[in-house]
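Dear Dr. V.,

Thank you for agreeing to look over these. As mentioned in my earlier message, I'm a first-year student in the group and I'm still getting used to reading structure tokens, so any feedback on how I've presented them would be very welcome. I ran two proteins. I've put each sequence directly above its structure. The first is here:
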Amino acid sequence: MNRLPRHMFALLLVTAAPPLDRPARAAPAHRTSHTAIPDGPVVLTQQPGTALDQTARKLNAADLAAAARRGDTPVVLVGSAPLSTRAGETALFVQLQSAALCGSAGCATSVYLQKGHDDWTKVLDSVSGPVSLSHRTHGGMHDLVINGTDRWVWNGHAYRDTMPAPPMDDLRRSIERYQAQHPKPH
């Protein structure tokens, strides 16, 4: 068995170790922009002071102002993703987090597409749960998958849900059955 002699092992440790006479330096801080790729999640992060954060705050100014009037300071999370199959067309994903703005289903995420230099259009409003891009497309735009199963597709102007809503008659009958089985106390 070939073993390194002890004196060589000590020499190797001394030469491979960083110099101890200088203070250690922290790794440089980098602002990363998390961009989703088709068939991957849209990662939302705090990015204070970035162009994405400033745009998100401008687009959600009314909600942020209403929260401020209640003494609330929501956390602003942003992310971006190439929704269009055309290069260079990236969407902005925004989620405001606070006790007043989030409910039992979590916090809502909205999606905006840039139409001009400073012109943004909301194409998906208030979905709750993790958002992922799909490799499947409709009308030149990638489908969005919410919570792993709920597929939203592009209709030419905005995203629409593909999950069928329960029929109203069935819902009404279900409510009436429940109310009959659980009468209100007088």
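The second protein is here, in the same arrangement:
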Amino acid sequence: MIIMHIVAIHKVPADAGDSTGLLAEAVGISAYEAGARLRVAGRFPVIIASFAELGEAEKTAAKINSAGFRAIVLKEDELESEAGRITVRKFSFEERGLVIESGHAKRLAVDYTSVNLILRGMSMKQTRETRTEKERKFSMGNALLSGGLVMTSSSEKEYIDVSENREGFIHIYDKENNIVVFRENSLNYSSLGERLKPSRSANFAFIISELKRLCAGALYDETLLNKGGQTQILGPLFNPEEHLDIAISLIAKSIRQE
């Protein structure tokens, strides 16, 4: 696995006359690249660079901070992965907390007051399938050569079908550093009992509203709900289909450390 330490900016100096020039000089990128990042920075963290060495990442972050920005370093061991998450299969909203069971039958009780962040997003992945179709067309040459017995010629044509698979997700972070994940297509919605809705999307929306209501002290963010937000955070260095975990980890760290 490639070791990667990521530097992002979150806050832009309000009184800096030439923010673009300051950022370009601090990071060593072109003014055009700096300007593109600054157009979206402030609403959420925006990745500026990645480094194999942690020292280089921290040095760059220090330069950015000295220029009046607020930099975030996302260390390689802070990147979320499936191994560090508890993916929910069954769940119940109890009086004092959320009780969940993972696909591996691991059970966990999470106190509502312990939850400090609810992160909502959407994973989007394109699939491409190639299919070949045979086509028959009228052929004057075949007709003449065969005396009218063969009037057509056959050919093969390839088509590429592109489809996009979407799945909503919710990440819940608590004070014990548990990361509990609800995935729209993986949940056993019978857990809702009498509150079960007619469709999967309606059930997932209900879970979101209940989590927000019961975890009233938690921050809520849905920046990752569309590809535009994901792309702006990741910038040209990464893409949402392959590197969504980076965007998730960065958003979570930036919000929780504020």
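From my reading of the second output: Residues 240-256 form the longest helix (17 residues). Residues 127-162 form one domain. Does that match how you would interpret it?

Kind regards,
E.
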